[in-house]
């Protein structure tokens, strides 16, 4: 049993978002595997899905929860009752080659935000994103960004509906097979805090 108490960040008795516990690493890896193999089968390269190692992923998520690279790196889980149904991870963003720091302040990056498809359309993704925004604001972050596969229209529509937009940056990842092209999306948090509409 994890001795550290974790506050509920958002939600009610039935649905909530809070920081992940180390014992939930296998649940996070399970959500990631199911989401990738179902909702993302047409988006992610087959080579990546075929060689997916859920046990290694669970170990990586346990490390991310127990010993994050910095205190600003966080993993959050979405719960329905006591079942982990989604998660997100974020932390300080690294500058791309030729990119200058934002003069307004620090930028953080959401590395992943996934909800297990059978629990979709119940607000879990929105609650995860809202909690990430609230925590980033509490850390003094002025901008959030994320990378999405160019072919991922569903995630693009989700972030666009939350006020995000592409910022002109793109990258191509070597997956050991078919290259994966991604576009970068971003939103300004200072403006959001000042004008909630």
UniProtKB/TrEMBL annotation:
Domain N-acetyltransferase: 15-185
CDD domains noted in UniProt: NAT_SF
Highest taxon above the source species: Bacteria
Gene Ontology MF term list: acyltransferase activity, transferring groups other than amino-acyl groups
Entry-linked Pfam families: Acetyltransf_1
Keywords from the UniProt entry: Acyltransferase, Transferase
Region annotated Disordered, chain positions: 1-22
UniProt xrefs under InterPro entries: Acyl_CoA_acyltransferase, Bact_Acetyltransf, GNAT_dom
SUPFAM superfamilies according to UniProt: Acyl-CoA N-acyltransferases (Nat) (SSF55729)
Protein name, as recorded: L-amino acid N-acyltransferase YncA
Species assigned in the record: Blastococcus aurantiacus
Organism lineage: Bacteria, Bacillati, Actinomycetota, Actinomycetes, Geodermatophilales
